[in-house]
Amino acid sequence: MCSLAAMCPRVLFFLGERSVMKRYFFALLIFLAAASYAWAAPQRIVSLAPSITENLFALGVGDQVVGVTSWCDYPEEAKTRTVVGDALSINLEVLLGLEPDLVVGDATLSQNHLDTLEQFGIPTFVIAPSTIAEVQTALKELGAAVGVPERGEELAQAMAVRLAELTSKVHRASRPRVWIEVWHDPLMTAGPGSFMHELIVLAGGENIAGDADNPWPLFSEELVIERDPQVVLLTAYNLDEALTRPAWQSTSAFQSGQVYEVNPDIFSRTTPRILDALEELIAILDEVRP
Predict the structure, then answer these.
(1) Do 177-286 and 45-165 have the same topology in CATH?
(2) Which of 67, 74, 163, 278 could be bridged to 84 by S-S, CB 3.0 to 4.6 A?
(3) Which fold is adopted by the domain 45-165?
(4) Element (H or E) spanning 186, and its range?
């Protein structure tokens, strides 16, 4: 699509000596007319990540989504779409057979796939939010990319309002120590720069991995026990396994029974539902007694 800056010199040449205001007015009219012919909202969208699929449906363009990954399970309707692979690999033949006019991927999961698709001339769009604010921005950008900018703005604003409401209720004399477990073998958690870390902070907790040097660090069992979490959050449906760990029984969380198996979909996907995770975490930390 031509940009206004690129078109203006040509427009001004033909308009001759008219006033600057008139020149730019006509240039804008021509630009808008050209844009209406040069761009149309995509009608066949492929999503390469569960969070993207969820966001596309939230934006109201679920009917245009023709392909998803095997992990895309929300909303329920997403399960009826053609599966093109998972976050780690895609079936290029199946994807190309869907004749998409836009493929949307997460830069942290599917950048290699997107680079390949661009070689086939398929339009791609990338998002990679790592904070709640970036989720809001991604919703606006994705909304614009699929032709519903107003809906993107609405979702982002609704998130801002709800976030303010949730955090306004957080008043703690001290911050409970929290261990959030992304995976158990090897032991992986969330550090600074991750949205899970942000959830803990916003809920009024202290992430015991808050001094890690990357957003998704590996951690030793010995260090977890040494830092004595008061709350343990499990995001891999492994509560039974966790409760049998001998060395963990001495921690405050295990002693008080504050070991929780949470829904990984709301805690690990960068969608508006991440605020459901925040609300749940606030309620959990409200139960911690000094």
Answers:
(1) yes
(2) 67
(3) Rossmann fold (3.40.50)
(4) none
CB atoms closer than 10 angstroms to residue 183:
14
H or E segment to which residue 239 belongs: helix 239-243
Those residues with Cβ within 8 angstroms of residue 242's Cβ, 6 or more apart along the chain or in another chain: 181, 184, 232, 234, 248, 259
What tens-digit pLDDT sequence spans the chain (290 residues)?
333 333 333 322 323 334 444 344 444 444 444 444 345 899 999 999 999 999 999 999 999 999 999 999 999 999 999 999 986 789 999 999 999 999 999 887 777 778 888 888 899 999 989 999 999 999 999 999 999 999 999 999 999 999 999 999 999 999 999 999 999 999 999 999 999 999 999 999 999 999 999 999 999 999 999 999 999 999 999 999 999 999 999 999 999 999 999 999 999 999 999 999 999 999 999 999 87
User: What are the sequence ranges of the domains in the chain?
Assistant: 4-38, 45-165, 177-286
**Residue 58 near residue 272 (C-beta atoms within 8 A):** yes
Tokens found for residue 177: 């120590």
Q: How far is CA 255 from CA 138, 228, 251, 272, 274, in A?
A: 41, 11, 6, 34, 29
CATH class of 177-286: alpha beta
Pairwise CA distance, residues 131 & 169, whole Å = 20
- Name residues whose C-beta falls within 8 Å of residue 23's C-beta, 6 or more positions apart in sequence: 8, 11, 12, 15
E runs forming strands in 97-144: 102-106, 124-127
Q: Is 105 exposed, middle or buried (0-12, 13-18, 19+ CB in 10 A)?
A: buried
